[in-house]
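Researcher: We plan to redesign the surface later, but first we want a full-length starting point. Tokens attached.
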């Protein structure tokens, strides 16, 4: 199966890029039209283009994982790497995918055992700040 869910050749690069734009626009909470320039300004044009191609690949398009599943996996990976600066956008996305503060706290508690309390406590701080901020944004 290809990323598009059909058998045969992989999707053309232009399709991967469009799927990557859609994925990152969702993560960063911007429109698809705004994303390429904003991402290039943030990360540089070469890195941004590579990331868009990767995000449009099979890992993001595979229907075997839900958005919620991907959010949990990405938050776990970022926590394990100590990449707490990258967590905010993914915690926001996880909340949009149905994870609440209780679920995120349970995830951090579980991760603490496996990745260490130092990484998990820093990530938990980011989770609490992000969730509190997202609750303030609600009407």
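Model: Full-length starting sequence:
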């Amino acid at each position: 199966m290809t990323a598009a869910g059909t058998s045969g050749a992989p999707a053309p690069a232009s399709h991967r890029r469009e799927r990557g734009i859609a994925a990152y626009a969702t993560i960063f909470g911007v429109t698809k039209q705004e994303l390429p320039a904003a991402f290039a300004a943030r990360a540089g044009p070469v890195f941004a283009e590579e990331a868009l191609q990767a995000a449009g690949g099979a890992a993001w398009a595979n229907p075997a994982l839900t958005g919620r599943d991907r959010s949990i996996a990405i938050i776990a990976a970022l926590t394990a790497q100590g990449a707490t600066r990258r967590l905010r956008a993914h915690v926001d996305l996880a909340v949009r995918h149905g994870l609440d503060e209780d679920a995120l706290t349970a995830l951090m508690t579980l991760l603490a055992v496996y990745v260490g309390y130092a990484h998990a406590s820093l990530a938990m701080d980011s989770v609490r700040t992000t969730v509190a901020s997202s609750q303030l944004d609600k009407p």
